[in-house]
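Appendix C reproduces, verbatim, an entry submitted by the partner laboratory led by Prof. M.T., so that reviewers can inspect both the input and the predicted structure.
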Amino acid sequence: MAEKQRIVFLDYLRAAACFMVLLVHSSECVYSDDYSFSFPSELARWSIMFFQCFVRPIAVPLFLMASAYLLVPVTKPTGEFLKKRFTRVGIPFVVFLFLYAFLPAVWGEFTWAEAWANVKQAGINFIPRESHLWFVYMMLGLYLIMPVISPWLDKVSKKEEQFFLGIWGFTLCLYWLRDIFGPVFGECWWNPYPFFYYVSGFVGYIVLGHYIRKWVDWSPAKVRSICIPVLLALYAFSCWQFYRRSFLFETNRELEMHLQNDTIIAGVMSACVFLLFRTISSPGKAYGTVRSISAASYGMYLMHMLMLPAIFSVMNPLLPVPLAILATAILSYLASWAISALIGKLPFGKYIVG
């Protein structure tokens, strides 16, 4: 793509969102096994709260909104669009499903018998070693729905799109209602698709990204005056919730419920951060580096968990918890960027790192 065709702020946003993902996973090395948690110290509790309550709700939504900003409404024929998306995203995804399944056996993390069992599982779902790849399954599903919603997005009025986003915003509050009442609006074991189900979830971020591109034309001063106070208020509320819940619950699901991507906190914080990045109007001196990171970001996401736990195991005994988290994220970020960028230069690199 020619330089003049690039949307500069999206490159900055992808580079930042990729680092946020690594901060999430570096923090998890301290306290989480995906299902339960424990804090080795009060410093660890406060450090993880400081990082997670900002980056966890927004990292994934920012990627989705960036994709929507560029891709919807889809103007290419559906087959052409899906072929390009599934080639660039799906093929590297399959490659890494199998790399995670057997590569750790090379350095003795598990046996070759376990590696073979992992390979068989890779054809069905991710194994625990690659749990971050849940994102790609979700993203491929959104690619399938983009051509379906594009005719509507192409013709929708501002009020109609606001109406959809209002309903979607309400669904982002359902986790609170479920916490109080249990199943709501027709949910039961024989009907997991209740009222509002089809206007909920990650598809809302696709519509939100499109809405911001088409209808939100705020000045940088207005963006800062609205988004920064809202962002700080929600961050403070999230920290309070996290700290309180860390004493009340034992599972990650309960501890992090308010930080998940399908919550109102995530929706509003993501919109604020996206709008703040959109105020970037010129490339700046760092843009060459940022563009390189942005181009390599998918490969970085795919591969970073091959190295991040090992880097953390070195940093953690040497540094206080907050510095160990930061050092792990930074070193993993730089290493995965270098490797992804190098692979991307190979003739077949796009089939490995996208």
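The two ends are 15 Å apart (CA to CA). Additional entries are available on request from the coordinating office.
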